[in-house]
Amino acid sequence: MAPKLDWIRETPNALGALCASCFGVGAAFFAILGKPLTLSMETSVFNHKVAPPGTLEPGPPLPASPLWLDGFLVGCGAVTNGWAYAVKRLPIAGRLQAIDRQALRLENIWSYVAVGLEFVSKPKTVVIKELLSPAISVTERPDQWEFFKIWLDHGLEVPPLIIAGLDNVTTRHSVQRLWPETLIDMGAGLGRRPRRSNGIRSRNHLQRPDGSDNSG
């Protein structure tokens, strides 16, 4: 008989449920390989603490009232696909400009959690628009970031929020130099990167507007 699962009844949490499903898929993968996991622990998505099962506090509930987004979404690859999959399940509305010049390829399917074969050859900006509709209005910008950024010199304003899902360090630094009110960097490539910035200092690494380094 499987051991009893320690849990505390609380308000439903979409992010916690998605994280639990990711851990479950990982455990199933190891079981298929003949290497079942024997370590028993629980992890807090809120503060990243790890402890024996049933000992961590659930953390604060997610906001019940809708949150409004107004921003750029730079890079619509695998990481952003997972972000959209989660955001779709939260009370979030608003508008985004999605910037990515690529179309979805067959080899992308296996790492994109929210798409299937029917999305192959579609622009990635279109994929994100379909995933987030109708709560979040997405304007498709199928362009390279450095070309899109030229519009900032011709009347386009930097929004209060920029979400970046990029694996290129140089492009991430280019996005960071805009210094929006809030920056969420979901970078998946090599090198140090900020997880979140309030425009003053990041947790890991940012460059100042003059190009000098600001490591923390």
Model description:
The protein has about 220 residues and is α/β, with parallel strands linked by helices. It folds into 2 domains: about 15-50, no CATH class; about 65-215, NAD(P)-binding Rossmann-like Domain (Rossmann fold, 3-Layer(aba) Sandwich). It is about 25% helix and about 20% strand. The chain has 5 helices and 10 strands, in the order H-E-E-E-H-E-H-E-H-E-H-E-E-E-E. The strands form 3 sheets. A 6-stranded mixed beta sheet has the order 5-4-3-6-7-8, sandwiched between helices. A two-stranded antiparallel sheet has the order 1-2.
Draw up the topology in text.
Elements: H1 14-32, E1 42-43, E2 50-51, E3 67-74, H2 78-87, E4 92-99, H3 124-132, E5 136-141, H4 145-148, E6 161-164, H5 169-176, E7 182-185, E8 196-197, E9 205-207, E10 213-215
Parallel strand pairs: 3-4, 3-6, 4-5, 6-7
Antiparallel strand pairs: 1-2, 7-8, 9-10
Brief characterization of the structure:
With 216 residues, the chain is of the alpha/beta class. Helix content is 23%, strand content 19%.
Overview features:
single chain, about 220 residues, alpha/beta, Rossmann fold, 2 domains, 6-stranded mixed sheet, two-stranded antiparallel ribbon, about 25% helix, disordered C terminus
